[in-house]
Design brief:
By secondary structure, this protein is α/β, with parallel strands linked by helices. It has helices spanning 29-46, 64-79, 99-113, 122-126, 130-137, 142-161, 172-185, 191-195, 216-225, 241-256, 260-270, 306-315, 319-327, and strands at residues 18-19, 26-27, 55-59, 85-92, 117-121, 165-167, 198-199, 207-208. The strands form 2 sheets. A 6-stranded mixed sheet has the order 5-4-3-6-8-7. It is globular and about 65 Å long. Bound molecules: adenosine-5'-triphosphate (ATP). It is an enzyme of class 2 (transferase).
């Protein structure tokens, strides 16, 4: 990584220590930090993600992406006087030896960044921990439960905090992988949606990805050089082999052509479906055509929300049938 060359960003004022992963430009540490922060700031401004006075929840898992996001959001909020009221929002899925440890990191981040933390658990919301779910259904398909529950839990936690906005640490690599996975599954209807910087309906709290154009390698380097306090173990229940193949393929492409990650994101953004394919978007209760879940009262486009369909299967001891029903 080290180089005797001068940094190209400050015209050789300082020695280059890193190569910026997206461009391979030799850069000093200071310019690299500014490069990443300005990239995120430009993304926020270009897409008008926030307005002064907004309450914003940073979805914080304790992992590198959301820890760097918390650091960069607090830095930009001060530097550019964005006027945001920031919060950390963590979901405790109930995974012993993984989430309990990572939540300790988030608790330290609360002190380090001076941003208040709210933790919401699957156990309090659903009466199940992921440990108990995996005990019942095994490792296969457990990510389906976790993904559905986490999405809803983040919404519920955000509503408790009365925030206007949720930001997540999804980075450019994550998004490019999802584009590739949707192509490999032939799910073209989701291509545009998975590259959207913000997802929201009139009734849901907007959720956005300020790291949409930030490479994972940049985030890792930023965390390393800034010596940030983050938790680096992979989830013990998450084999997710399919995404692993997409990731390996993307890394191969990146090694030949660093711009491949952004190119894939842009391809997804520009993709226009030849056929109009309607995606089932959940809407909040009361207003409009959707309504609320008859069991928990949460927004749902059909009688039962996805979480309650899955919970019903768990409670009846037939979780696989619930997964099949959810996929229909
Ligand atoms: N338990 C959680 N509580 C709060 N937010 C979460 C949680 N799990 C994931 N997220 C949010 O979703 C984003 C993507 O999550 P994913 O599981 O893909 O982890 P990741 O890419 O390893 O990110 P990180 O490094 O932040 O853990 C995270 O960056 C974070 O913003």
């Amino acid at each position: 990584m080290a180089s005797r060359k001068g940094c190209v960003l400050c015209n050789g004022e300082r020695r280059a220590l890193v190569k910026i992963p997206s461009t391979l430009a030799p850069s000093c540490k200071e310019c690299f930090f500014l490069h990443l922060e300005n990239n995120v700031y430009n993304t926020i401004v270009r897409h008008a993600l926030f307005k002064p006075g907004d309450r914003v929840a940073i979805a914080a898992s304790g992992g590198k992406d959301s820890t760097v996001l918390a650091h960069v959001m607090t830095t930009l909020n001060k530097r550019h006087k964005l006027g945001l009221d920031l919060f950390l929002l963590s979901i405790d899925e109930g995974i012993t030896g993984y989430r309990d440890d990572s939540l300790e990191t988030v608790k330290r981040n609360e002190q380090q960044y001076g941003v208040p933390l709210k933790i919401v658990s699957y156990e309090e919301l659903y009466g199940w921990t992921m440990d108990a779910i995996v005990k019942q259904i095994g490792l296969k398909n457990n990510c389906t439960f976790c993904g559905v529950f986490r999405r809803q839990a983040l919404d519920r936690g955000a509503a408790m905090l009365k925030v206007d906005h949720i930001v997540t640490g999804h980075n450019a690599d994550d998004i490019a992988e999802t584009v590739l996975m949707n192509i490999m599954r032939g799910d073209f209807a989701r291509l545009q949606r998975c590259t959207a910087i913000q997802t929201a309906t009139d009734e849901t709290i907007p959720r956005s990805k300020p790291f949409k154009y930030t490479y994972e390698k940049e985030i890792v380097m930023y965390a390393y050089f800034k010596k940030l306090d983050y938790f680096s173990t992979e989830c013990i229940y998450s084999p997710n082999a399919y995404r692993g193949y997409a990731r390996a393929f993307l890394k191969d492409l990146e090694s030949i052509r660093p711009s491949a990650i952004l190119d894939i994101i842009h391809a997804g953004e520009w993709y226009q479906s030849a056929q109009q394919v309607k995606i089932n978007v959940p809407v909040a209760g009361g207003a409009g055509c959707g309504g609320t879940c008859v069991r928990c009262g949460y927004m749902s486009s059909s009688g039962l929300c996805k979480a309650c369909v899955l919970l019903g299967g768990l409670d009846r001891g037939r979780p696989r049938r619930a997964i099949a029903a959810d996929a229909e």
